[in-house]
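WD40 repeat domain-containing protein
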Amino acid sequence: MSSVIRPRLDEFLLAVLWLVTVPVWAYFGLAGYFINLSEPPNFKLPGFIIGFFFLCLMVFGLRFTIKIFLRLPKTPPKWVDSAAPVVMGITLLLGSLFSFFTLGVVLYYVFSTTLEKLMFAWGFITAVGILVFGIYLLLAALYSFEPFLLLFDKSNNQKPPWFLNWAIWINQFRVKMLSSGLARSQSERRLHGPLVFESDSLSIIHDEKAGGRPALEKTLIGQGGWHVTTLGITANASVIFAASDGSVPHFQAGGRKGILFPPEIKFWDWHSNKVQTTTLGKTQSFITRNQQVPESLLNYAFLVPAGGGKFTWITPTAVYLGDWQNDTVKVLKPEGELFLKGNGGFAPVAISPEGTKFAWCDATGQIFFWDVVADQTRPLRSYPIGHNAQFGNEEGIWGLIFSPDGTKIATIAKKGVLLQNVYTGWRWFAELKTSVEKLTTFAFNHDGFEMAIGIMILEEAIRRPSKRSKYSRPPVLQQLPPGSTDSSGKTWYSVVRIWDLRAADYIDIVVGASPIRDLAFSPDNRVLAAVDEEGVLKLWDIMPEGSAINPPRLAALLELGITGRKTRVIFSPDLKRLICATDNRILIWNIEKVRQEWKAVDSQKSVTDV
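Tokens:
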């Protein structure tokens, strides 16, 4: 997938303006710089320094212009991807050496010439500015060379040549400074939203027109490396927010160069079609072997609570909890390293819906709880995994989730679901039979007393409805839908299991062969939505109480036209719309029209069968 994002019109015009003015900066810079150096008796410190800064303007103007022009072609030549950062890095490195040379000349004339106190102070302050500027150019040069330096990442087990050790050490120091929060980027200091809306030219919004799908109202398509991992909607149902944790790598043709985009969140006012995008960090590129991503680039996570008012930026050594409305950021630095990539790529970290509690899990199954308001941390009960279990294998924990009221934490793994109350210590464990059941997803209802899980299951482990109710169709399944057969010949079925925590009882709904990837209860707990890996949406009407005894009634079945393992689905607070997301797309569906569309198709099938 190409990583090129086409420049906006204002960027292109600014690049052309820089290109036109570069000869002017070059002429005055060379005149002020070299004329003073060539005539030492007539050396004038102010003219020399001004000439230096004119030459710097020329270099940075060319740098900006080249970066914009490289983004003009949709598919740049392959050699450009490798040559451009090298040329840019060499230019910045030479600029850094040029700055240090200028610094030496300035200091020589400041301390060897009799100057007035005001001129001496001005010259000394300028020398300090040139030093800082030279260091900045050196770090910028290392940033350009970073794709090649990452070849010697510790995860690749490659020993660097001796002459690169200094560059690798300085680059690691630069990365450590940035990740520690000592040099937060501009985007992190301007986390204000979703009240201020700006036009985002990189997001494409389609208003569905007559003749299309009646139930589909709007579609938003993001560009670049934006892949939805967190989806939510504000309480007034007017703003949808979707976050990307930036952990999806993009590889150029041939798999030689990789791109890792930073985490970002989009606030979409879908009534006025306004989008605000906030990005945390910078795009990281790297040179790779066999499409391997350096561990140092992958080991982080980005979470947004259900209300959308806060965000959590997580690194292996610290947790940063911030507010979109102000610049306050709370930092937690737990003992030991945080494991952010669990089984199947899911992150064993979670934030409560209101953003005041945070939970994480280590490789031994120990769960920790951080009360942000009280600023207290404490361990909870451990998940019952094996002594040799580590994240990434089949025994590892692949997810945590808070109940809607924030009082309970569910830990999800191969063995089952561990549920515990963070205040009372109450604990409940639903064990799965690993030989016949495979967990795929999980959701609480909005009371926190029922939960739905998606599992792949063998036929003998399916629990059939025990009785009928006025809300259910005939409970006896005469024939199961087609399942998926594995290499051993076993046939697995996709099942939604609704669990009543108070009654410790459950019911299974067989939905097909494709694994369920996301589940969501409506705010009034009367409707359950499920999306499978093939992009098929199913809606069930369920009883407000005792749904584990009274089987739900299928209310709609719709092909969304989206596929993927990380599909997300939520209800709007007004119960009128369903928001679905996968990869770089968000779709808004009208629930009533979804029901009508399915009834029309279902009735037509019935007539055809007759």
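Residues 454 and 496 are 5 Å apart (CA to CA).
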